[in-house]
Amino acid sequence: MKLLEAKKLTKSFGGLMAVSKVNMVINQGELVGLIGPNGAGKTTVFNLITGMYAPTSGTITLFDGSHGKTIHGLKPHKICNAGIARTFQNIRLFKDLTVLDNVRIAMHCSVKYGLLSCFLHLPRYRRDEQRIIDESIELLKIFNLDGKMDELARNLPYGEQRHLEIARALASRPKLLLLDEPAAGVNPAETAQLSEIIRKVRRLFNLTILLIEHDMSLVMKICERIYVLDFGSVIASGTPDEIKSNERVITAYLGEDAIDA
Amino acid sequence: MDQFIQQIINGISLGSIYALIALGYTMVYGIIKLINFAHCDVYMLGAYIGYYCMTFLHLGVVPSLLIAMILCTLLGVLIEKIAYKPLRNATRIAVLITAIGVSLFLEYGTMYFVSPQVRTFPPHIVKSMSAGIKLGNINLTFMQLMIVSVTVLLMVLLQLTVKRTRIGKAMRAVSLDVDAAELMGINVDTTISFTFALGSALAGAAGVLVGLYYNSINPLMGLLPGLKAFVAAVFGGIGIIPGAMIGGYFIGMVETFVAGYGYSMYRDAVVFAILILILIVKPAGLLGRNVREKV
Amino acid sequence: MVKQLNKKALIKPLALLVTFFIVQLLIQFNIINYYYQDILATICINIILAVSLNLITGFTGQFSLGHAGFMSIGAYACALTIQRVPTVYGFIAGVILGAMLAAFAGLLVGLPTLRLKGDYLAIATLGLSEIIRVMFINLDSITNGAAGLYLQYRFVNWFWLFVLTVMTVVLISNFVKSSHGRACISIREDEIAAEAVGINTTKYKVMAFMIGSFFAGVAGAVYASYFYFIEPNLFGFSKSIDILVVVVLGGLGSLSGSILAAAVLALISSFLQSFAAIRMVLYAVLLILIMLFRPGGLMGSRELSVAMLVELRKEAIAWLKAMPAKVLSAVRSITKGTGKHGGDKSASKGRFEG
Amino acid sequence: MLEIRDLNVYFGVIHALKGVSLTVNDGEIVTLIGANGAGKTTTLRTISGLIKPKSGTISLDGADITGLPAKERVRLGISHVPEGRRVFPAMTVLENLELGAYLRRDKQGIAKDLNKVYEHFPILYDRRRQSAGTLSGGEQQMLAIGRAMMSRPRILFLDEPSMGLAPLLVQEIFNIIKSINESGTTILLVEQNASMALKTADRAYVLETGSIVISGSGEELAQSEDIKKAYLGG
Amino acid sequence: GSGSDSDVIKIGVNYELSGQTATYGQSSVYGIELAIDEINEAGGINGKKIKLVKYDNESKPDLALSLTTRLMTQDKVVAVLGPATSGAFGSTIPLAMQYKIPVASGSATADGLLVDDNGNVKEYAFRICFNDSYQGKAMANFAINNLKKTKAVIIKDNSSDYGKGLAESFKQTFEEKGGTIVAEEAYVKNEVDFNAILTGIKGKDFDVIFIPGYYNEAGLIIKQARAMDIDVPILGADGFDSPELVNLAGEDALNDVYFSNHYSPLDESSVVVDFIESFKKKYNKEPDAFSALGYDLAYFVADGIKRAESLTGEAVKDALEATKDFEGVTGSFSIDENHDPVKALIIIELQNGKQVSTIRAGN
Ligand SMILES: Nc1ncnc2c1ncn2[C@@H]1O[C@H](COP(=O)(O)OP(=O)(O)OP(=O)(O)O)[C@@H](O)[C@H]1O
Ligand SMILES: Nc1ncnc2c1ncn2[C@@H]1O[C@H](COP(=O)(O)OP(=O)(O)OP(=O)(O)O)[C@@H](O)[C@H]1O
Ligand SMILES: [Mg+2]
Ligand SMILES: [Mg+2]
Fold it and tell me: Residue C353 pLDDT more than 80?
């Protein structure tokens, strides 16, 4: 069952075709990898899907069952509320807020009370806030961050910041999660831990995941399907094994001796 | 027609004054992202220094101008060292409040010493400066010519400094990333001081010229043109040197035409209304590029 | 458990009530004499202004230089209402009307201008408040132009000051502690990330502007009724700056900071009256010194709490002990020109900013 | 060449470096590995003068440089590719590279080095007029390294140069590091990719919560079981 | 309250010493302090010296109000002088009524300032300057009757009630008498460039300019107008009265300039001559209208205190109300039932920067 489909997705910056005519399908429940050389346009694809950029041409459709809704060109918050959440290649936490607040903010769309309750702190406000706190803590537990609830995000070690960013993305209860290089700058031991976590949240939240990553040990281990971009176009797609042995991918991206990982 | 041409001349000379002050705002803003409220007070002090040179030391216009520029340069650097430098790591708005403090200090310090009364320059100097050309109904004074040419000249020089010279490159690097600039071997403190020195020298020159042109100075004389110049700088795209000039001329022109064609009571309102409309279309100012941060 | 909660919830209202009656008593016995009452009124009005601007600038991170403009709408609406209905009901109607009109102006301002950022927004708000001011000058038949409006009666007393100030603080504080408030805060922290986690940044910016303007309108209304006289030039650029100074001095994002700063500034100002000739110079020096030594404002972005007071005591003692060294090093850094104050210079910078 | 003795660094109450000592000899590649938050970046930033240590000494060629500001250290031949790349976003690629040579005056030498950088990273040549802020993550990383090369340093600090780079380029980067080293530049390398780093380096130090726990030659450490477990992912 | 127990009499001084209108406040205070020094040197009032309690209201009406409270309730003054501007002065009048202590201004000229909505005089408020309509009317009459001009341009100070008030009354009288207002332009305080406005009106058909405003800007307007060859007569009011006017405009420009004033330095009466002399001696400069009015204001109040039966606000008020034929620098006057001074107005003519004649004018 399709969850997201991009058709002829194109984005150019001035003369530069960062993404050109990309067709891509992500099915419900899949874990798909998106790889490619630096500057290939991976992050730009994410930015197009999440509404950070409007595509130059092409469409993006998000499916809810059989019902499809085009989402390209919508504002990012609308897309988030439609069920797509992301992390950033350069971590973008609310650095000066606490870990708990980072997650609570992302729970915003599930809030049920209105302005009146908020100004007067009516019982409804109290109930809902309590729920938000409880749910946030639950979420943080998954990432072992519940002990650091009141830390400022900036004071977390780098790896935990990556984790917190994923937790924050999950707080908006997405159907589709986009992860942009979650293992960058994380050492191999922690990368292994990360792949565990990705698997776990996928199971727990019934998630579909699209993942950008240069660390092949992670990509090849957990992705079910992989798209490879080069110069803005899809040059290959298929299972990890197919990709590993694809000549074009090897010359453009992997290199001869990187596959042993 | 005559009237129209005259109004253009009026607009250009008024605009030059805004531009001259705006250049200083934009320089300092460009490097440390600070709206240096004290800038318009350095301008005011420049005017007073010029005044005292001419009135009590009986110096001519040029030496007075030079002295004012030198003293203002020192003052600008001093202000930076005392009031802004310790706040390098503080939020921008904290520095802004400090700048307001410095501005109040200069205004009221000056007022305490020289009283709030207006001062005028010695009549013989004023007279010699207000000579001009008359073409039919159109008036053009040497002062106006001088202010316009000084403004354009300084703009070009500044732009060249920033774009072409080593120190200019250093200024831009510092403005983007202090640490990285230091790693390139750039002396960050010197670079910032240099920027303040440059901006303040400009303010000093502007103070003397404008003071002479209108022949009226007082301790609060910086407020009004300071505000307008600041608006001009933002309008052109703050931090961009040609932007400051275009902004200055724009505001000067709009003011002149609104006032000149019978709406002087609504002048400021019209200026701001146009400004807002333009900002809505070009949110980063006329020359500013509205780059959405890449994520 | 439930009982405990209730007890806790009761402490604040009780404290407020007690404060109210103590001050009322002090006024009755003329210990808080008329002059102090005037200062009290100034403080209360400044608190309302600062707290409401803090919502816009401190919490939502939108740099506004036009708060006085919204204040003036409240002031004029209230004054004109009172002139027509010179009773306390007229006053109440004036406050409500003023606040609503100001909020409406906030909406009008917000919608088109909020896509501007930082200093561009500041200029736009400054411009709008100037436009409002020029309108008041030129709408001669209604506003009496530059000559301003005089009121004969004063309806604001300690009761109203207290009620309106507390109302403002409580409502805004409740707001920022809610999910909507957190949405505003997230915009301040990182607008792109806020959008990405599903927050309609435009909506919340406009909301912050409207709420902030609403209370600025309240402050204006109270001002008009307390001080008998308003004129357009009262609400110019420098008034907006004055309000901003209170907010930053108290600490961006700290409501108790705004309250504290409003009080401190009023007291300083009244104390300095004994030095009429150089008071503004002294005021300026104080402002600079406070910012140099507490660049985050008096309270940073924290709120006052009992725990904090204890901490503050400790901090104060440590600070006092460290004071001589600090002054020395500050002096040295100024004279010698080493830019560093120990530690990491880029402490406020992101890890991966490229 | 570079000698660090007993360095202690604090961030407020956090004791980030607890008596770190290390040496880098002329012509060597030395690597510093360790878990996230161990203090690797802090060590580099302290040596290049961006952070003031509480105590300890740093000396270059036997001369004490502990109190010197960062810009002076650049003059002495230290160059630092900072974590997070820190390119100047609103400047073009070319301007960034030129700034790398800020202290140099030899026009020809600069031009030659510029060509060398473009040879190593052809994509930078293609993007030379693009503003650095809009480069992709990997492109920025290349630019940061290129910029550091432009100062023709005697000793180069690299903070996680392989981060965010495509696998092909990771290999390439390490080759480039080697070739820079072979052309006479001493290198101090911080890496998460410990296996590659240990392969490339002559000597290595392992940092754990602010202290050096192990040191030895690159090969030695690559064989060590403890290291394998902790840093090589198995 | 009163300060009768001690051997000093306290008078409050509540002026604009900083902020936008600091010039007016400071000038006024110069005059006040000179007068009080003289009075004290001459032995004070009934053997008691006068002590001034001076505060700066920063040109802010709210601060002016709270300082008045402070002066009246804490410092226990018998009267408060100032503020200089109508707005700030007006905001302190309710307090005067409340605490029954008189306030008096030398320069708050707004019409209707001293009467309430029902037309009753506010008993505790006084002023010794003309109100705006008096001067505006006088100048309009002068333009039509003496100069025979019928087409006027008004360039008014739009940031002060003074400019607005004068402009309004001038316009009304001028039009009533058959003149037309060709254009009404505006500027704000501290502006220096009037070329646009002047170029704009230059193309119009008019024969006189009225500038309701202060010398700071008026001087520059005159200068710039003359430089543009606009040589119609220029009229103004007492805001023109300052030695700075000639410096700002330049002698050559000050031709055919007429303004209404309280007194003329040409006046040879000893009060005026002595005042100018001692002012120059003390401050090393020439006085302007604000200083002269401040000087008179201090004497006026001191005179009231002297005649008062006791040192209470109420008694001082009664004495001030009863002022008759007070001889001041700014003319001799009595206080009328609306607490306005009844005094003659003169119109001064400037040619080549010099005062060449004075014309007595009534309405
Ligand atoms: N806002 C922009 N303006 C101009 N060019 C851009 C912009 N955003 C991206 N680009 C260019 O588009 C290309 C694709 O960038 P993108 O960030 O998508 O690469 P990527 O595949 O994520 O690479 P990496 O793995 O290095 O992060 C790059 O060459 C980049 O320079
Ligand atoms: N500016 C700072 N303020 C406070 N603490 C800091 C600061 N910079 C670093 N730290 C702390 O110092 C410790 C060492 O950080 P450092 O960045 O040097 O680690 P690292 O080894 O480079 O880690 P990584 O692999 O994540 O880059 C960490 O605990 C970090 O949280
Ligand atoms: Mg990317
Ligand atoms: Mg690091």
Answer: no
Cβ pair B99, B117 in contact under 8 A = no
**Residue C268 phi/psi, 5° resolution?**
-55, -45
Check which CATH number belongs to the domain holding D19 and give it.
Answer: 3.40.50.300
- Residue pair E221/E194 in contact (Cβ under 8 Å)? The answer is yes
Q: pLDDT value at position E336?
A: 93
In the structure encoding, which two tokens stand for residue C61, read together?
A: 């991170």
Give the whole-angstrom CA distance, residue A19 versus residue A7.
12
* B139 vs E26, E193, E227: nearest CB: E227
Question: How far out from the chain centre does Cα C327 lie?
Answer: 30
pLDDT digits (tens, 9 = 90+) for E175-214: 999 999 999 999 998 899 999 999 999 889 999 999 999 9
Distance CA E198, CA E185 (A): 9
User: What pLDDT score does E355 carry?
Assistant: 86
DSSP string spanning B117-149? Answer: S-B---HHHHHHHT-EEEETTEEEEHHHHHHHH
Task: Measure in Å the smallest separation between the Cα of B81 and chain C Cα atoms.
Answer: 6
What's the 3-state SS for A67-86?
Answer: EEEECCCCCHHHHHHCCEEE
Nearest in space to C220 (alpha carbons), one of C72, C338, C320, C39: C72
Collect all residues of chain B within an 8 Å Cβ-Cβ radius of residue E291: none
Q: What does residue A64 show for φ and ψ, rounded to 5 degrees?
A: -125, 95
State the pLDDT confidence band at C337, using cuts at 50, 70 and 90.
very low
Q: Does B97 touch chain E (CB under 8 A)?
A: no
Name the least confident of A94-98, A158-162, C157-161, E169-173.
A158-162
Structural domain of A11: 1-41+51-83+175-191+215-261
Q: Chain centroid to CA A73: how far?
A: 18
Q: Are C79 and C101 in contact (CB under 8 A)?
A: no
Q: Compute CA distances B105 → B41, B219, C266, C284, whole Å.
A: 9, 11, 18, 5
Distant-in-sequence contacts of C45-48, Cβ < 8 A, 24+ apart: C45/C219, C45/C222, C45/C223, C45/C226, C46/C243, C46/C246, C46/C262, C46/C265, C46/C266, C47/C165, C47/C168, C47/C169, C47/C258, C47/C259, C47/C262, C47/C263, C48/C164, C48/C165, C48/C168, C48/C215, C48/C216, C48/C218, C48/C219, C48/C222
d(CA A143, CA A229): 31
Q: Structural domain tally of chain A?
A: 1
| pTM, entire model | 0.91
Picking from E156, E240, E155, the residue whose alpha carbon sits closest to that of residue E200 is E155
| Angstroms from D133 CA to nearest CA on chain A | 12
Phi, psi angle pair for E99, to nearest 5°: -95, 0
* Neighboring chain B residues of A88 at a CB cutoff of 8 Å: 295
Q: In whole angstroms, what is the distance from residue A202 CA to residue A166 CA?
A: 12
Number of domains, chain D: 1
Which 8-state DSSP code applies to residue E359? E
Give Cβ neighbours of residue E40 (< 8 Å, ≥ 6 apart): E49, E50
Domain boundaries, given as residue ranges, for chain B: 14-223
Kindly report the CATH number assigned to the domain that includes residue A62. Answer: 3.40.50.300
Comparing CA positions, the residue from C42, C101, C43 lying closest to residue C70 is: C101
**Taking CB atoms and a 6 Å cutoff, what residues make up the pocket around ligand 1?**
A 13, 16, 18, 36, 38-44, 89; B 294; D 134-139, 164
Q: Which residues of B179-211 are buried (b: 16+ CB within 10 A; e: fewer)?
A: bbbbbbbbbbbebbbbbbbbbbbbbbbbbbbbb
**B291 near A CB under 8 A:** no
Q: Does D103 touch chain B (CB under 8 A)?
A: yes
Residue A207 in any domain: the answer is no
The whole domain housing D69 covers 2-231
Determine the 3-state secondary structure of E252 from DSSP: helix
